[in-house]
Write a structure and sequence with these properties.
Elements lengths: L7 E4 L8 E7 H6 L2 H10 L9 H11 L5 E8 L2 E13 L9 E5 L12 E2 L3 H13 L6 E8 L6 H8 L4 E13 L21 H8 L2 H15 L4 E6 L5 H9 L2 H5 L7 H16 L3 E8 L2 E11 L2 E9 L8 H16 L3 E3 L6 H4 L4 E11 L3 H24 L1
Parallel strand pairs: 5-7, 12-13
Antiparallel strand pairs: 1-2, 2-3, 3-4, 4-5, 4-6, 7-14, 8-13, 8-14, 9-10, 10-11, 11-12
């Protein structure tokens, strides 16, 4: 049983600003009431991404952790939120804890979340410092876990605060996620030659020109060959009516055979349905379908937010693998992103060869684990992040 939590934390305000206080909101019902202030804060902070919106986190909590103990640390000045951390409690005793019982408080993030982080608003530095001050004085946890923090994120300030106050931190690289910078859409006319007016290349044409020649030729050839089988069309939906088609396509291949398809797991159906529904309400849903003779053969579930296309999930009919329907679908999604004037196409998830075909860059994601500086915390930290890496390196040398 955790000890009672303090009702508030205190940090002296900067000159001319109201003070920031930290409240601990208990349970799901309290978290639900934060929605409007939460999303308002996110829009004013350093990283406004869909995975940190209140609706996304609510979908996670309701589908992946409906009965878990939830505490949300909220830093406010008046009614305005400046930082917040929802933390789910788990008591673990396994190899990761050296088989010692440890109470872990973790952000609501798993493999389906794609990216983790802390809600940071306008005065995020003060807010994050206030939350850390409250957390370090709060009993009941042995370690804090923040999964899949992207490199360069403001959230990494938390590591600095922890280490400055004597709390050991461990890092583990989890993902190197591909993303594609999109060029600005060309406008106007290029230089004139012999009285001819030349139209500059579009943003998508600029991307095509950068691709490996063999990949570009194969993609074009497979588009032609697929078109010989029937009319090929790319349809784009901004509501979730086509979600059933996406679930069917995603389950038609190896994921369906392995029992890992979304449609085969109720918690995944619930999570992705909520995410898609909430994105559709704010006109952020991008559900693309590639059709052959009117039949869907590939689909992607994406969210367009903050000038980026976030590719959440993709699936295709594996019986048409020789025509690369998945890459054809991605090609159309990138073209659409260019026409919208977006600045980035974020593939999300792990590094895979088909993503790198698009000359993608990589964004590193890391797990940050903060240990309470107790004998148990220091022991597990040393075992996991000092002794174990050394042992693995020795074993590699001997093999």
């Amino acid at each position: 049983m955790s000890e009672a939590l303090p009702a508030t934390g205190y940090r002296p305000p900067a000159a001319g600003k109201s003070e920031i206080r930290v409240e601990v909101v208990e349970g799901r019902d309290g978290f639900v009431q934060l929605e409007k202030a939460w999303n308002d804060a996110l829009s004013k902070g350093p990283h406004d991404i869909p995975m940190l919106r209140h609706e996304w986190l609510k979908a996670y909590i309701e589908n992946f952790a409906p009965g878990a103990t939830l505490r949300t640390f909220v830093a406010r000045a008046g009614r305005e939120i400046h930082a917040a951390m929802p933390l789910i409690e788990a008591i673990e005793k396994n190899a990761d804890t050296c088989f010692l019982p440890m109470t872990t408080w973790a952000l609501p993030v798993n493999d389906h979340s794609q990216r983790g982080g802390v809600l940071l608003g306008k005065r995020w530095q003060e807010g994050l410092e206030s939350i850390w001050q409250t957390l370090r004085e709060t009993a009941g946890w042995d370690r804090l876990r923040l999964r899949d923090l992207p490199e360069g994120a403001a959230d990494w300030r938390l590591r600095e605060l922890a280490e400055q106050t004597g709390f050991p931190c461990g890092l583990w690289i989890s993902l190197r996620s591909p993303y594609l910078r999109l060029p600005a859409q060309a406008s106007g006319l290029g230089p004139q030659t012999s009285g001819q007016k030349h139209k500059p290349p579009t943003a998508y044409e600029q991307i095509e020109a950068r691709l490996d020649g063999k990949f570009r030729q194969n993609l074009r050839r497979r588009k032609r060959r697929l078109a010989e089988l029937g009319e090929v069309s790319y349809e784009f939906a901004e509501d979730n009516d086509a979600l059933a088609d996406f679930f069917d396509i995603e389950a038609s291949g190896w994921k369906g055979r392995d029992g890992t398809a979304i449609a085969q797991r109720p918690e995944l159906v619930g999570f992705y349905t909520q995410v898609a529904r909430d994105a559709a309400k704010r006109k952020a849903l991008a559900l693309g379908l590639l059709k052959l003779a009117g039949k869907p053969i590939a689909a992607h579930l994406s969210i367009v937010h903050g000038g980026r296309h976030h590719l959440i999930k993709i699936g295709y009919d594996e019986s048409l693998h020789e025509y690369s329907p998945g890459q054809q679908l991605v090609s159309e999604a990138i073209r659409d992103s260019c026409e919208r004037g977006l600045r980035e196409f974020d593939f999300l998830g792990p590094c895979m060869e088909w993503k790198l075909d698009w000359e993608s860059e990589l964004r590193t994601h890391t797990w940050l684990t903060i240990f309470r500086p107790t004998p148990k915390g220091r022991l597990v930290h040393a075992a996991r992040f000092t002794a174990w890496p050394v042992l693995k390196a020795m074993l590699r040398k001997e093999s």
